[in-house]
Amino acid sequence: MHLAEEQDTTVRVTILGQEYPIRADADAEYIRGIAAFLDDRLRAVYQTEPSRPLLKIAILTALNLSDELFTLRRENREMTEQFEQKVREFTDHLSRGLVD
């Protein structure tokens, strides 16, 4: 999904009690789902730190989400490398089997 100012699809979402018009080149339900996910994550951080300003809550939430993203990217890269290694091993076995 790409958020943009000139897209035709505009969806109004509520995050932490504030309404935001979101324009994007994605399905409205998808946008609402992302907004609900973000709202849930922000509220979870807020519940643990209710005295913090909302900007700090937002930054902590962004850091948590970034950590998850980086972890998933690393895991994906590791799984891809393992898969590619297994394919190379399988191809080598097949090649040796065909030659013998």
Order of helices and strands: EEHH
Q: How large a portion of the residues is in β-strands, by DSSP E?
A: 5-15%
Major sheet characteristics = 2 strands, antiparallel
Termini, distance in Å? 51 Å
Total E-strand runs: 2
Count the DSSP helices.
2
The gyration radius over C-alpha positions equals 22 Å
Label the structural class: alpha+beta
Instruction: Name the average pLDDT.
Output: 91
- Which runs of at least 5 residues are low in confidence (pLDDT < 50)? none
Multimerization state: single chain
Q: What's the helical proportion of residues? A: 55-70%
Order of strands across the biggest sheet?
Answer: 1-2
What sort of overall outline do the alpha carbons produce when their principal axes are compared?
A: elongated
List the helices and strands and how they pair.
Blueprint: E1 9-15, E2 18-24, H1 28-48, H2 54-99
Antiparallel strand pairs: 1-2
Helix pairs in contact: 1-2
What would you say this structure looks like, in words?
By secondary structure, the protein is of the alpha+beta class. The protein has a domain at 9-70. Helix content is 67%, strand content 14%. It contains two helices and two strands. The protein has a two-stranded antiparallel ribbon. Helix 1 (28-48) packs across helix 2. The protein is elongated, with a radius of gyration of 22 Å. It starts with 8 loop residues before the first strand and ends with a helix. 3% of the residues are buried. The model has no long low-confidence stretch (mean pLDDT 91).
Essential attributes:
alpha+beta; 2 strands; about 100 residues; about 15% strand
